[in-house]
Amino acid sequence: MTTKERFHSVLGWFEANMPVAESELNYRNPYELLVAVMLSAQCTDKRVNMVTPALFEAYPTPEALAQATSDEVFEYIQSVSYPRSKAEHLAAMAQRLTEVYHGQVPDNIDDLQTLQGVGRKTANVVCAVIWNQPTMAVDTHIFRVSERLGLTTHSKNPLQTEKQLVKYIPAEVIPKAHHWLLLHGRYVCQARKPQCEKCGLKEFCRFYGKNEKK
Fold it and tell me: Active-site residue among 139, 156, 213, 214?
């Protein structure tokens, strides 16, 4: 199976079996999504969704968050991973977002990455989810699943994975494909115990094919 054929088969399966694929983070506007994605780094969406209601009630706008100290923000997010650094990043991000962008979340990767605590992955998520742009955010799930399926080959880092994926995935499909791969890694193709027997993609999967022959 060629790489092009593998992509066609995998994307076709997802389209038929997971026509709706969306972020599991709760948000109501671009500002809330940006904050939630920043909090989700090395943390579960479930945990993030537990802390954001109170956080957004206290700081409903970037302007409100910009007035908060990192210590005040910390009180709301202390149950997530790395709360001290995330509190500092959120406070600084809100200040720059207010001062430079007048409280409007930028709609492009370059400007988003000028905000403290916002890396390429976070910027890609915001652009894909909010503006449906063809940006592929690569987290640990997507990095793992892409290599196992055979969509990527010997990818050494998230940027290499991103480049290999966007080369073969149609631009209009990329925002949804991000969620397809992420959710598949979260619930089926898990790191320690991939559930190959119940996976509908095993027919096209390089990882399964190699292990089946052993």
Answer: 139
